[in-house]
Amino acid sequence: TAEASEQEFTQKFRDYGVEVVEFTQAEYDNFRAVAAADVWPALTPIIGKALLDEAVAAIGGG
């Protein structure tokens, strides 16, 4: 599954000494809100609205 794969690769990163930062749901929600307000609009002229809309839909945003 995707979750098992994520756990496996997260552990591999840790095994190689990479600090893995995990966000709380509140931190993730805040990060997402900032991205939606500041980053996504800046990407529109670069990648186009259709592609950005597709990417946002794929991650469950909107």
Features:
3 helices, 62 residues, mainly alpha
Describe this structure in words.
The protein is mainly α. It has a domain at 22-62. Helices cover 76% and strands 0% of the residues. InterPro entries: TRAP_DctP_sf (IPR038404).
Task: Give the H and E element order.
Answer: HHH
Arithmetic mean pLDDT: 92
**Count the strands?**
0
Number of alpha- plus pi-helical segments: 3
SSE topology:
Blueprint: H1 2-15, H2 25-47, H3 49-58
Task: Briefly characterize the structure.
InterPro entries: TRAP_DctP_sf. With 62 residues, the chain is mainly alpha-helical.
